[in-house]
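Why does residue order matter? Because the sequence determines the fold. Keep that principle in mind as you read this record.
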Amino acid sequence: MKALALGLAAAVLAMAAAPALAADNTLTPAEQAAGWKLLFDGKSTTGWKGFKTAAPDAGWTVRDGVIGPDPKTSKDLVSKEDFENFELDFDWKISPKGNSGVMIHVIPVGEETYESGPEYQILDNAHGEAPPQQAGSLFALYAPSMDMTKPVGQFNHGRIVVDHGRVQHWLNGMKVVEYDMNSADFKARVAASKFKRWPQFATGKTGAIALQNHGDAVWFKNIKIKVLK
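Structure:
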């Protein structure tokens, strides 16, 4: 009995020492103190709009703390606020063989968000795409170093870090892509890709965050951002 009591006491102490985890779509006191803010409140599309429109597309709905588009009709969802240097955290879940993405530095030019905003690719890798188009990639430009995706049906944790043009893509705790938008290598890759047809691509030093509807069911939650200087 004494050993059991000691074991329970140790477990309680360990739990007390562990960092607090926030419920979905909330921030811990430590996150708040560090400057994180929610981009999605888990209840509404507050803080979001359409691409080049003042109101968010009606196809985006919130259910059980998760936001997602109507795959057949929704236009992309775009943050009302622009961001330059930041850490962006988000959880995403994709449908079987589905495709979507998160764009950064989106500016209101062109016909689509991806014409200006570099895309963190969201994909069920069973879709069969080439490595530069797989989950966690900078779509069509930089392949992820490894496949860190969870099985379809589970939420993955994404992170994008942007620091004066230097960008990291993280997937489920692993850095899988790193690039510099100011580098000759980045510019050469863009010039050799389909993005060369859009001179505005990756030219915004600041811009909106966009959640893409690519015609497949996708779900997002825990979207939060910390602005960097």
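The CA atoms of residues 103 and 119 lie 4 Å apart.
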